[in-house]
Amino acid sequence: MFEGNPIPHGSYDLLAAVLASIALGMVATVMLRIRFEREWSLTIWTAYNIKRVWQRLADESARTGGTLTSHGLGICAWCILGSAWSLNQADYSLGNLWLGMGYGGLVGVSSLLLRATVAILGGWITLAPASTSRGLEIDRHMRNWLFWVLVILCVFYLGKNVPFDRRQILWTSTVSTWWIWLSLKWFRQLQSVVHDGLPFGWGIVYICTFEIGPTYLLFKQF
Fold first, then answer.
1. Rounded CA separation 122/131 (Å)
2. How far is CA 20 from the centre of its chain?
3. Closest Cα to residue 40, out of 75, 65, 76, 77?
4. % of the chain residues with pLDDT over 90
């Protein structure tokens, strides 16, 4: 406080937790590009050439290291969302921004575990475990793209020098990006259902029950 008025915060103060999440994710991105070419290629193909992902050869499948690195990128995307949410809830002390980053990471890890469980359950119900496993793979690849889009968005607002009284614009933008990404991901998963020859109704039930339902509950919670 200065003479009874709060001291303005700079963009770097407001986005400190976001920038830390971005830094961690960019390290993972560099590792993915340099060390895990298979996972990198599958991620790129998922965005614009999904048929190439379906038609990959056995020796083009991602290895464990690449898979774990992609999961790390996905958790960093959740950390960005958690940081933006905590900034939207913060007072002038900005004391909970790092806590929001931690909450986001926790939600990201929980989401990964839940999706893995759902993929096993869905494969048992539909008798097509390969198809549900492929849906889990698409989710992983597209989450990398979510992280990269969020990075571009946050860098844009950093350049705009967002003031404290307009901090909610970052949360609104990031959560809107998340919803758009979810819609595209669900579309990709439905494409996989059709490609694998599964009943389309099963695909709708699967996405509504295990994707849209939990996502809506999570959004309402926050």
1. 9
2. 16
3. 65
4. 32
Using CB atoms within 10 Å of the CB of residue 175, give its burial: 0 to 12 exposed, 13 to 18 middle, 19+ buried. middle
Q: Are 177 and 81 in contact (CB under 8 A)?
A: no
Does residue 79 contact residue 104 with C-beta atoms inside 8 Å? yes
User: Token pair of 167, please?
Assistant: 């901090």
- In the structure encoding, which two tokens stand for residue 203, read together? 């695909």
Counting Cβ atoms within 10 Å, is residue 64 exposed (0-12), middle (13-18) or buried (19+)?
exposed
Query: For residue 110, what is the enclosing H or E element?
Result: helix 97-126
20-71 pLDDT, tens per residue?
A: 999 999 999 999 999 999 899 999 998 888 888 877 766 667 788 989 999 9
Residue with tokens 């909610």: 168
Amino acid 129 reads P
Query: For the chain, what's the residue count?
Result: 222
- The answer to whether the CB of 6 falls within 8 A of the CB of 13 is no
Q: Is residue 155 exposed (0-12), middle (13-18) or buried (19+ Cβ within 10 Å)?
A: middle
Q: Are 199 and 119 in contact (CB under 8 A)?
A: no
